[in-house]
Design brief:
The protein is mainly α. It is built from six helices and four strands, in the order E-E-H-H-H-H-H-H-E-E.
């Protein structure tokens, strides 16, 4: 954990240094300058999703009628942009304190509602040097939390109609085999397949 954010060095660049699909350095560049530019490039690589997320949130607040027209200049897909803004909103800058963890680590726990639990998971990932994938498995196997996805906007659905219908038909067949008791609030069902296991939870309204 870092207590104080390091200032990312801004390299002195000519107008032609950063080009489309090309990074051009002057032959007069000395080692110290070259090294600083490398530090800057690594900082861009590590922090780009945070920066884009903060940039989107600023535009959403400052230019609510116009910001959506500009977000795609980043070249990122809509789901990626949505995740960048979502994770940045869940973790404001003062809560991005684990220098050894990546943006993806934070993405993996952003769906955890309890703030203390989110930071507990990040702390364990830092202390145990867990990769983002290992953190996802830890959540799935130990914490038993659902996969992390942003909550869709009200009234919208990301599930295609044919898939929705197939899910409903499959659920109906499962309920015939494993009916929910009148006294039970919900029932969990597990189905094994050659490629893995499907777990479903039927909740009585």
């Amino acid at each position: 954990m870092v207590e104080e954010q390091d200032v990312i060095p801004t390299p002195i660049a000519s107008a032609t240094e950063y080009q489309e699909a090309h990074y051009s350095l002057s032959e007069e560049t000395d080692y110290e300058t070259w090294e600083k530019k490398g530090v800057f490039l690594q900082a861009v690589h590590k922090n780009i999703n945070w920066w884009i997320g903060d940039w989107i949130l600023f535009g959403e607040r400052k230019f609510p009628d116009k910001y959506s027209q500009a977000v795609f200049i980043t070249g990122k897909s809509e789901p990626t942009l949505r995740n960048c803004a979502w994770v940045s909103s869940v973790f404001p800058p003062e809560e991005r304190t684990y220098e050894d963890l990546t943006y993806t680590h934070y993405l993996e726990v952003a769906g955890v509602k309890d703030k203390e639990e989110r930071h507990s998971l990040l702390r364990q990932a830092s202390e145990q040097s867990l990769s983002a994938l290992a953190l996802r498995r830890f959540r799935a196997e130990e914490v038993r939390l659902p996969p992390v996805t942003p909550i869709p906007e009200e009234g919208s659905s990301n599930v295609p109609q044919p898939l929705q219908q197939a899910i409903e038909e499959f659920s109906s067949k499962m309920l015939e085999r494993c009916p929910i008791s009148d006294k039970a609030k919900n029932t969990e069902v597990s189905v094994n397949f050659p490629w893995g296991r499907l777990e479903m939870k039927f909740i009585r309204d």
